[in-house]
């Protein structure tokens, strides 16, 4: 079944997606309570690939579940011992993995600031896109965002969307210039004022791009 024909997504009362085509639940131990009476009003988009620039496989999932075999690739020594998570991970083919309930605080933003407030994990939902800063994201990933974001908006008062690079400038660069913020805003109902400043639409190359 094409992605656009998959059932509409919604969150249950515990902040987990209902079982649906293209959705996997993989609860991570890397989360904690949000501050009292603090709901998520910021959506933060990231990218990730493990090893960098390589897609597929289970490395990202294993990393967020604290079961990554650090001996399986030399680069993994750079992240050994880290305890991180995001609420969601969207693979290149549009499949969605949820690691943390949206009611809880995932460990995705780190040292960060938005609208004068620090600790963006307290009031945000984090989505990791399988990708790199400069490789165009797949249409299937934008389509997955179109399925996921309305479910998040239906439960949480999301009013802004930013990249990790915008809430942690100088420290982070993702999702990078390859992410089409104009398309994302148009397809998910975020006005320009609710998105990062100065972003440009990225034209998708005519031919296939390989890492």
Under CATH, the topology is which? Lysozyme-like
Helix content: 10-25%
Tertiary shape = globular
How many structural units, i.e. domains?
1
Unreliable stretches: 198-211
One letter per element, helices H and strands E, the order comes to EEEHEEEEEEHEHH
Ends: how far apart? 28 Å
Put simply, the count of helices is 4
CATH architecture group name: 3-Layer(aba) Sandwich
Q: Please state the structural category.
A: alpha/beta
Q: Could you explain the architecture of this structure?
A:
- This protein has a six-stranded mixed sheet with strand order 1-5-4-9-3-10. A two-stranded antiparallel ribbon has the order 2-6. It has a two-stranded antiparallel ribbon with strand order 7-8.
- It has one domain: 3-Layer(aba) Sandwich (Lysozyme-like), CATH 3.40.80.
- The chain contains four helices and ten strands, in the order βββαββββββαβαα.
- It is of the alpha/beta class.
Write the layout of secondary structure elements.
Elements: E1 23-25, E2 31-32, E3 42-48, H1 59-64, E4 88-90, E5 96-98, E6 105-106, E7 113-114, E8 117-118, E9 124-130, H2 139-155, E10 160-163, H3 164-167, H4 181-188
Parallel strand pairs: 1-5, 3-9, 3-10, 4-9
Antiparallel strand pairs: 2-6, 4-5, 7-8
Helix pairs in contact: 2-4
